[in-house]
Specification:
The complex is a heterodimer.
Chain A (H helix, E strand, L loop, with lengths): L11 H17 L5 H11 L11 H10 L3 E7 L5 E7 L1 H27 L1
Antiparallel strand pairs in A: 1-2
Chain B lengths: L2 H18 L4 H20 L4 H12 L2 H11 L9 H26 L4 H17 L5 H11 L1 H10 L6 H14 L9 H19 L3 E2 L8 E2 L3 H18 L3 H20 L9 H29 L13
Antiparallel strand pairs in B: 1-2
Helix pairs in contact in B: 1-2, 1-3, 1-4, 2-3, 5-6, 5-9, 6-7, 7-9, 7-10, 8-9, 8-13, 10-11, 10-12, 10-13, 11-12, 12-13
Classes of the chains: A alpha+beta, B mainly alpha.
Chain lengths: ~120, ~325
């Protein structure tokens, strides 16, 4: 019997590099909170992007310090106080730039693989 | 496993996080909410509470690693210094504060610029030991500035023994310097640059003249007094992350530039007068440049027009 080798998950560096555009893109759809963001990333990537859930918050805080997003407290559906994040105008601009850069990388890779 | 046991397990996770780094209530509450929501969702799938708690803790991550990452990223002005680095800088500050107390306050009195600077120094010393995130950039800017004047003093007046001041300054700057990318935020960099400008204005005011025996000493560059006040205002605004800080910083930059023009009339009678003159003008002009840069960074990193006191206690 031959065992089918599971494809490796996305590498740590790529996960880290894609964190900012993913978070900004998710928050562009509307305010959200950490747990919901993790769920959405999992859904969007079909479970391929494995984020260490506790590491999400430092990334959100860094984006907040950079003025790309802002946070506020509200009462969640569980009746607990919960911190929500939403995109700021600078975040929208940063997302547009991230998107442009990823499009360039994507286009370059597509061409490179087509000719390989 | 009862609800009380779940609460205790979450409390234990919080304690582990706190043991590793000084996380604020905001960070802890956020992680706790995540853990609780995850445990609830896992239990809703039929998972026993004990397994759900273990699985949730595993998915959130090793508390030591999570705490370290938070401590590295968090802080409006940059990463917290480790205890070793903070206490090393504090130890190196002691001879500087002692020297300021003896030669500055001892000579000018308590109610003087030296007295005020000694007071600031003691506040900074306390903030550094408490590892407040703003203490690092403020000290970095202030101490980094004094490297050049101390080298100049050591060269011009070897008898002054400025080398004994230079060694702790360079040592402290090495401990404070952001060796990794992103260790200082834009707000932190703005603070460091603004304090550099304050030090430049203070340095410019050291050059005074008198019209005769018994006459009061007058600064060669009186505009530096305005620059000094503007730099203090900009630094306070920077600590509050207020947008008006950028305007004060711009004022400090422009008045320091005027102070450079005023100082350019100075003629030195020591050896190498042109080197001395060029050094003095460059050192003061550096303050005009850092203040202009601080103005841009303060504007971009401001939280709001009026700022907030929230960041100061972090």
């Amino acid at each position: 019997m031959r065992l089918r080798k599971e494809p490796a998950r996305i590498g740590k560096d790529l996960v880290a590099a894609s964190a900012t555009p993913l978070l900004l893109a998710i928050l562009q759809k509307g305010p959200s909170y950490g747990y919901a963001i993790i769920q959405e990333v999992r859904e969007l990537s079909g479970g391929e992007l494995a984020w260490s859930e506790g590491m999400l918050y430092p990334v959100l805080h860094r984006l907040e310090d950079q003025g790309l997003i802002e946070s506020y407290e509200d009462i969640g559906e569980t009746n607990r106080k919960r911190r929500y994040y939403r995109l700021r105008p600078d975040g929208r601009r940063a997302l547009a730039e991230e998107r442009r850069q990823w499009d360039v990388v994507h286009a370059a890779l597509t061409k490179a693989w087509r000719t390989a | 496993m009862s609800e009380k046991d779940v609460d205790e397990a979450i409390e234990h996770y919080r304690t582990q996080l706190l043991a590793e780094a000084e996380l604020g209530a905001r960070e802890l509450d956020e992680i706790e909410d995540h853990l609780r929501t995850l445990i609830e969702d896992l239990r809703a799938t039929g998972m026993p509470a004990t397994v759900a708690v273990t699985e949730a803790a595993r998915r959130v991550g090793d508390p030591r690693a999570v705490a370290r990452e938070h401590a590295r990223v968090r802080g409006a002005f940059g990463a917290k210094l480790s205890r070793l680095r903070a206490w090393s800088v504090a130890a190196l500050m002691l001879p500087m504060l002692t020297m300021l107390a003896i030669s500055g306050v001892g000579y000018e009195g308590v109610w003087s610029r030296s007295g005020l600077e000694l007071g600031f120094g003691l506040v900074l010393f306390t903030a550094l030991v408490a590892r407040l995130s703003w203490a690092r950039p403020v000290l970095l800017g202030g101490l980094a500035f004094y490297i050049a004047p101390s080298i100049l003093a050591a060269w011009m007046w070897p008898a002054y023994n400025a080398i004994w001041l230079l060694v702790p300054i360079i040592g402290a700057v090495a401990f404070l310097a952001p060796w990794r990318r992103g260790e200082l935020t834009a707000a932190g960099a703005a603070l460091a640059l603004q304090v550099w400008a304050y030090a430049a204005a203070s340095y410019a005011l050291n050059y005074q003249y008198t019209s005769g025996e018994g006459s009061p000493y007058v600064p060669v560059a009186p505009t530096a007094q305005v620059a000094l006040v503007a730099a203090v205002v900009a630094t306070i605004g920077g600590l509050l992350r207020a947008r008006w800080s950028a305007i004060a910083a711009l004022g400090s930059s422009l008045t320091l530039a005027l102070a450079v023009i005023e100082l350019s009339s100075l003629r030195f009678v020591f050896s190498d007068p042109e080197v001395m003159r060029a050094s003095l003008l460059t050192i003061v002009a550096s303050g005009a440049i850092t203040s202009a840069l601080a103005s841009i960074l303060a504007w971009r990193s401001a939280r709001s027009l009026l700022g907030t006191l929230r960041e100061i206690a972090r």
